[in-house]
Q: What sequence folds into this?
């Protein structure tokens, strides 16, 4: 098969910023599979294949967090694989194998994998490589395995496509990547000015999208919008292509997008009256949402799935939430409405006592979790103590339903085998060996929840000093040394105290703030 060779060279010229994607983590895939009755391999000991892994920003942290798993990544770009390999070596990982190869050459002799991940590739390769990706997801997937494929979708990409066409037209006479990106930006600036005063529906749409694009990195603009191949599809088309390779739609990795929860009950009722088929239903929801992106989970066709999720499915799981109630003193055991906000901006309003009790019980554990059984015990005891509760029965069934509903709304996380991090700062704090290697290699930092964390430079430097051997005072004096020697620069205009005692106090304060940030960000380990 002749995969597009321009792909390799374009990613060698401008490597893709390679990050972690929590939604693609086998731990998350196993939870969704389990809810639909598919017993996948335990992620901690699984085999994982990533197609188009770039420089391993997603696969390497997975391998670090699951030392007994076997992780293989393939990518066409030699430069990106080299960058990834340098990080693997620096972190001393033995369970990850990055290979520079065309995914089209991957055949059955490669063996089978419990999880196959292909993020951000499908829409940027020609039709024959798209077909190959799905063939691999079928032929190289273990019988109860899960494949994750993300792609751009229609109708949302129709709008992006118009802007892409304008930028491609404007840059048509250039070949050099920096020139192409520079000219594309110049065009965006011009177009923003041109539509600024217009009030039509078209100009409003264009304005929003142009503004969003203007703030993106060169690499994103070049690869996501200006690559030669850019082929969004409708969800129903993707599902049909997957079925043709013996695959079945399992679910969406952003689980809460599978149901039309944000629409009025009347609209939801009509949707259910139009179709009872899962793919068609989600296609209608995509039309209504103008969806631009999906990360779809597939399994082999011969697996039987249970679509009606039983609350019992979550009884062995751990539950966590980042939701915080707006009120300092939320009223749990009454029909009063309470409002909650998530750090990602989503909101929840509820009058349901059990839902409020779940959120109240979990609120101080974040970013940690609580086993469902402990949650049940705490909520049951609290309900018994409340004089307001006369008729409410708290049992596995109804508490399970409340938690499940929160999960379907994207408001709680479920874990089978939660990641190991500590939320209290130890006497000698320690960040992962991976984070220390990422710092040395100048790469983005990944926390133990598989999220990429934006860490200010000063805190990044301090994180590099957290090797489990230094206490806070030693970290503070190493920080001062770093500044005195000029290795670390203070923010422009920032003056350090001149009196030694004040200076010491200043560095101790900075270190305390940095350690609190690292603990909150799930970056410290035992
Ligand atoms: C947009 S990047 C996405 C990288 C990464 N998965 C992510 O989402 O951050 C697409 C990647 O697919 C790789 N790729 C494209 N065609 C390929 C092929 N035929 N075989 C292997 N890798 C390929 C490119 O080299 C590039 O690293």
A:
């Amino acid at each position: 098969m002749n995969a597009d060779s321009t792909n390799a060279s374009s990613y060698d010229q401008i490597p893709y910023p390679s990050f972690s994607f929590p939604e693609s983590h086998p731990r998350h895939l196993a939870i969704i599979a389990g809810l639909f009755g598919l017993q996948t391999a335990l992620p901690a000991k699984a085999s994982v294949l990533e197609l188009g892994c770039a420089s391993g920003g997603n696969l390497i942290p997975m391998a670090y967090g699951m030392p007994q798993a076997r992780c293989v990544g393939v990518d066409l770009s030699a430069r990106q694989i080299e960058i990834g390999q340098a990080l693997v070596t620096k972190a001393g990982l033995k369970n990850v194998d990055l290979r520079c190869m065309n995914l089209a050459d991957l055949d059955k002799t490669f063996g089978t994998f419990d999880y196959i991940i292909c993020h951000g590739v499908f829409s940027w390769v020609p039709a024959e490589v798209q077909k190959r990706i799905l063939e691999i997801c079928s032929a190289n997937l273990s019988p109860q395995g899960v494949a994750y494929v993300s792609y751009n979708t229609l109708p949302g990409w129709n709008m992006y496509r118009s802007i892409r066409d304008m930028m491609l037209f404007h840059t048509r006479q250039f070949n050099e990547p920096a020139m192409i990106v520079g000219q594309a930006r110049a065009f965006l600036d011009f177009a923003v000015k041109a539509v600024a005063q217009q009030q039509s529906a078209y100009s409003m749409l264009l304005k929003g999208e142009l503004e969003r694009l203007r703030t993106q990195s060169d690499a994103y603009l070049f690869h996501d919008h200006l690559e030669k191949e850019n082929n969004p599809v409708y969800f129903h088309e993707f599902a049909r292509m997957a079925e043709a390779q013996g695959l079945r739609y399992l679910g969406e990795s952003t689980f809460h997008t599978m149901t039309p929860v944000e629409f009025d009950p009347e609209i939801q009722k009509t949707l259910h009256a139009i179709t009872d088929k899962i793919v068609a239903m989600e296609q209608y929801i995509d039309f209504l949402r103008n969806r631009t992106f999906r990360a779809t989970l597939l399994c082999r066709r011969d697996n039987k799935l249970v679509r009606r999720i039983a609350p019992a499915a979550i009884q062995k799981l751990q539950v966590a939430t980042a939701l915080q109630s707006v009120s300092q003193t939320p009223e749990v055991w009454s029909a009063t409405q309470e409002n909650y906000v998530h750090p990602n901006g989503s909101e929840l309003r509820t009058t349901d006592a059990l839902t409020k009790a779940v959120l109240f019980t979990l609120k101080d554990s974040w970013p940690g979790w609580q086993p469902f059984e402990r949650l049940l015990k705490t909520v049951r005891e609290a309900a018994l103590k409340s004089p307001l509760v006369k008729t409410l029965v708290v049992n596995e069934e109804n508490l399970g339903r409340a938690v499940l509903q929160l999960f379907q709304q994207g408001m709680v996380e479920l874990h089978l085998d939660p990641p190991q991090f500590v939320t209290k700062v130890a006497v000698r704090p320690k960040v992962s060996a991976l984070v220390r290697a990422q710092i040395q290699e100048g790469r983005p930092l990944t926390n133990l929840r598989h999220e990429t964390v934006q860490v200010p430079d000063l805190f990044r430097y301090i994180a590099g000093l957290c090797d489990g051997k230094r206490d806070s005072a030693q970290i503070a004096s190493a920080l001062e040394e770093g500044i005195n020697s000029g290795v670390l620069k203070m923010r422009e205009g920032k003056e350090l105290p001149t009196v030694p005692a004040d200076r010491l106090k200043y560095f101790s304060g900075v270190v305390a703030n940095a350690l609190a940030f690292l603990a909150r960000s799930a970056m410290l380990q035992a």
